[in-house]
Design a protein that fits this description.
The protein is mainly β. It contains 4 helices and 12 strands.
Length: 189
């Protein structure tokens, strides 16, 4: 479980097949093999770690459902360690299970993202959405997308300040909305 508050802007250092090596300093301070770290909002497992880097094996399912397959060495990546029970919840509850990929229409400060219909049904004005692992508040729900306001700190400290039209972003909708939908549509017979 994560908060959507990005701790560090790392970079993809290298990729060999499904093995990704990320350059990072903060998230590696207490990382060990078997830990989870969210990379652009996608929860992956640490399989090796060293001074200033860590590695994860990204499964084919994650490569198909996220923007991680598009990463090239040197690309920036939003990184967050899992929530500890004693931490403040500065964003919202985020699983690191990407629900779909959106496409940037316009960049920050008013980030406009086209989203698939499967995502759109969960969005409400002033509701929560995770974009590339960043917990954000929906400003406007549009017919085929949504907008969020990117404050200067977020623009500087995450990938969102550098996203340009046409780029893909990982989207995770609010977990509570998915459970409510399931409960309301469940066959109770």
């Amino acid at each position: 479980m994560f908060t959507g508050i990005v701790e560090e802007l790392g970079t993809l250092a290298a990729r060999e097949g499904n093995r990704f090596r990320f350059a990072a300093t903060l998230v590696t301070q207490d990382a060990k093999v078997g830990d989870s770290i969210a990379a652009n909002g996608c929860c992956v497992t640490v399989v090796d770690v060293g001074d200033g880097w860590w590695e994860a094996d990204v499964v084919d399912e994650s490569l198909l459902r996220t923007n991680l397959a598009d990463l090239r060495p040197g690309d920036p990546v939003n990184l967050e360690r899992p929530l500890r029970l004693a931490d403040r919840l500065g964003g919202h509850l985020v699983q690191g299970h990407v629900d779909g990929v959106g496409k940037v229409v316009t960049g920050a400060p008013t980030l406009w993202v086209q989203a698939p219909p499967a995502i759109m049904r969960y969005l409400v004005e002033k509701g929560s959405i995770t974009v590339d692992g960043c917990s954000l508040t929906v400003v406007d729900v549009l017919p085929d997308g949504f907008t969020v306001a990117i404050v200067p700190h977020t623009a500087e400290a995450t990938t969102l300040g550098h996203r340009v039209p046409g780029e893909k972003v990982n989207l995770e909708v609010d977990l509570v909305a998915k459970y409510v939908e399931r409960l309301l549509t469940r066959d109770n017979s």
